[in-house]
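In this section we walk through a basic example: taking a raw amino acid sequence and producing a predicted 3D structure, encoded as discrete structure tokens. The instruction is simple. Fold the sequence below.
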Amino acid sequence: MVKKFLLIGLLLLTACSEEPVIVKKEEPPKNADQDPEIVEQQSSDNKAADKFIEFALPDEQVMINLEMVPILNVFLKTVVNKDKAIADMDLTRINADSKNLYLLEFSCHNELCSYLLLDQSQKNQAYLVADMAQSMQIQLSPDDSKIMLHFNREQSLPVPLSDITVINLDEWKPVKLKNITTEEKLLGFSWPLISSFWVDNNTIEVLKPNVSNVTKSTMMQWQKNEMPITKVKFNTKN
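The resulting token sequence is shown next.
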């Protein structure tokens, strides 16, 4: 049921309000190891208190406005143990020169989680970048205009399958990746990808197992054969 709400929430992520998605507190955290918790603050219209999830990071305190992130609000209204769900969340600041970006990990089951990319710069937006996955790599393009997020998902194979999501940070929308090396469909958790990195502002290179197809037997054989790899490039300009 929660999964259904998460998918519906994809359509509701961009906040159309002057209220901020993320609020930074002026004072540093007293305890950076403190679990996240729900706090309330008086709303700007003085009619009702706004609810936030407060996170203590190593050098700052950050609050996420639940009303401005509908998918997170719906998740907490449907989860059985709200306190545990909040305590299990993790917020990571992504270092970028011109933007205040954060990655929120929530709704974890068997080490697979959902991930929200949050932007505190100007537009205050949130985007669900993965569901039931594990974050492996986060990398900004050389000009900081795009962000690449590499996720893995454990299944029945000897190695996890992968997906890569790229978000255009200026337009705040996903970027379609085109395989310019082969005709293989490698994304969408259909292939294992060893690593990924930006070659330039519009090109990503990934390393993948050098096998003809992905099955339990081919991946076991690949592991025995010293794991040969091949390089594949994706273009973000379509």
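Looking at the output, two observations stand out. Confidence is low (pLDDT under 50) at residues 1-16. The first strand starts at residue 22 and ends at 25. In the next section we compare this with other chains.
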